[in-house]
Amino acid sequence: MKAEFNEQALLKGLALNDSKAIETIYKDNFTMVQSFIINNNGSYDEARDIFQEAMIALYEKAQSESFVLTCKINTYIYSICRRLWLKRLQQLGRYTNQVDGLDETVSVEEDLEIHEKRNADFAIMERALNSLGEPCRSLIEGFYIKKLDMQSLSKEFGYTNADNAKTQKYKCLMRLKKLFFAQYNIGE
Amino acid sequence: MDDILLQQTIERYLEGKMLPEEKAFFEQHRKNVPEIDQMVVEHTMFLHQMEDFAANHNLKHSLHEAHAKLLANGDINEGGELSTKGKVVKMWNKYRKVTAIAAVVGGAIAFMISGLVAYFAPATNQQAVAQLSAKFEQQEKKLTDLTNKVVKESKLPESAIVKSGGSAFLIDGNGYLVTNAHVLEGTNFANVYNNQGKEFKAVIALRDEKRDLAILKIEDADFVSIKSLPYAIKKNNTDLGEEIYTLGYPNFPRNEIVYNIGYLSGETGFEGDTLSCQIQMNANHGNSGGPVLNKSGEVIGVLSTKQLKADGVTFAIKSRNIYRLVDELKKKDDANAPSIKGNTASSLRNSDRVSQIKKVKDYVYMVKAYNK
To answer: CB 3.0 to 4.6 Å from A57: which of A63, A115, B113, B234, for a disulfide?
Structure first.
């Protein structure tokens, strides 16, 4: 009962990007995933990538309003990692005799599909941002990702006042939107 | 409408920063112009996408940080050298609960065993050591014998019942004395007498039953404070076999100071008690609380108990405990705490025994502990 409560609290923390919750989940699960991947023809770097990918998937799941985790966190993470790693192995044409690990798994296909769709969207956004050029890119990142206010942004970029910076930001945003939707709609 | 202005308007609309009338107007406008409606929907979608992108970005950053932190702490490992510090911390974190439980269980077992031992052990054990204080109850007689002109009026209250007595010695010229806590056992008041029979009122400044030591403070107008004491109080241990002597009032309640010699026969006290040491000496009731001095005239202990079924096996509390007691007193009341001399200050070092005694005896007092 208590463990269940703790897991709920951890997932809530994760959804809020709380560093304490992230560290706890990370610490409790990383070694398991790492040994699975190392034992199945992977490297330390790949283990880290796969694990962090699974953490992001868990985060996305924890964020959705209708979210219910029907299994324990470690089972979920393990299932995602296992699936991701098998896929990665296939893509790379690297084979392992048999992916071992008799641990319990749950079906994560649906979740992974959503996750992959989101990743594709993020990739489009990333590409759009990259082709935006400076200082547009930094301005947009500063405002939307680092969540800085217009005042400090105008100072950082050397605009004479916040209003000018704001106008510039809107111009950049319009270009970004165009770039994004051009890609996004093709993707659709 | 200017594109930038439109953007701004849409953004303000989505953020809910519009005034009600403006909002109503804008919503009407949206309904009428499908292009604007489309732009709002598109922008909403885009902002949402941007929001998700930012969250994803920030989460990746957090994960990266968590990874680096856990790696540094040794909680996770990527095949590199584990720092030992991390290992210990990890071990501690991992076994903290187990350790705590083990400690509790161990403690409980220790308690049980010591309880059982105490229960089944022969009862004689408890009486193996006798305290050297003189125990008695006596209504201090007010001397009515007018023919005896030497005796002055006692400072003890009329109703005083003297319960016990022993010896004490000054540790500070301002009237601080050390004695055994058991000398004062069951009493609340104490008067002290010097070797000429002069009486001073004193208060009990501190008792430490565990160490069996107490500090008395003379609070009497007749007491003249002394600039410096002839003896020092030793902080470290004394060697086995060293000759020691004591001064005290074994003929209690007779006010006669008595000299006694012996040697240090054991570094620990009764049954290995490390607070005290063993002395070969024939001590009597009333010697309790007297100073034990070595040949250089340094106080090495406070005479306290003797073994009942052995001849001359006496125990003294080691003198370094006096420092602990003074520290405790300082904690309680810094302004009124005694200051005691360190190791090197004995002025008796090169005197012979007789002149040492002559000097020391003025600082050894008899204690009468009483209840009103």
So the answer is: A115
